């Protein structure tokens, strides 16, 4: 299946408009579609990870960051200059999200005792 990058870019632009209009669920749907197709750019990954973080949806934040890392490992192998710094940034964000999830689980467990 041939993925049209212009369509993906248009989706990102439309999602930005939805975000500005406060229509977050519509923006999420467009970003998720690009991520499902393996979009090779950081925008939908950054935005979705941030949206999910703000919604305190750690599982989805982690899922998006893991997907971004897979995509950016591939981009780095293709020798695209922006690949490595963005790969490190996504890995750092994932580490923080995993740490937060572990801390919340620990707090929840101590409350149950």
Quote the average pLDDT. Answer: 92
Q: Can you tell me the residue ranges where pLDDT is under 50 for at least 5 consecutive residues?
A: none
Could you give a short account of the major beta sheet? none
Q: Count of helices?
A: 5
Rg, please? Answer: 16 Å
Helix and strand pattern:
HHHHH
So what's the overall shape? flat
DSSP summary, beta strand count: 0
Fraction in beta strands: under 5%
Q: Which range best describes the helical content: under 10%, 10-25%, 25-40%, 40-55%, 55-70% or over 70%?
A: over 70%
Structural class category? mainly alpha
Ends apart, CA distance between termini: 52 Å
Organism: Flavobacterium azizsancarii
Protein name: Tetratricopeptide repeat protein
Question: Any overview of this molecule?
Answer:
With 113 residues, the protein is an all-alpha fold. It is built from five helices and no strands. α3 (43-54) packs antiparallel against α4 (58-77). The longest helix has 30 residues, at 83-112. The chain is flat, with a radius of gyration of 16 Å. The N and C termini lie far apart (52 Å).
């Amino acid at each position: 299946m041939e993925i049209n990058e212009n369509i993906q870019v248009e989706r990102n632009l439309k999602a930005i408009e939805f975000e500005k209009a406060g229509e977050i669920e519509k923006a999420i749907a467009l970003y998720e579609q690009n991520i499902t197709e393996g979009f090779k750019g950081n925008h939908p990954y950054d935005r979705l990870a941030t949206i999910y973080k703000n919604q305190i949806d750690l599982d989805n934040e982690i899922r998006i960051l893991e997907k971004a890392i897979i995509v950016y490992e591939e981009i780095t192998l293709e020798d695209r200059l922006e690949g490595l710094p963005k790969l490190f940034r996504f890995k750092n964000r994932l580490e923080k999200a995993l740490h937060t999830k572990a801390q919340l689980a620990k707090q929840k467990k101590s409350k149950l005792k």
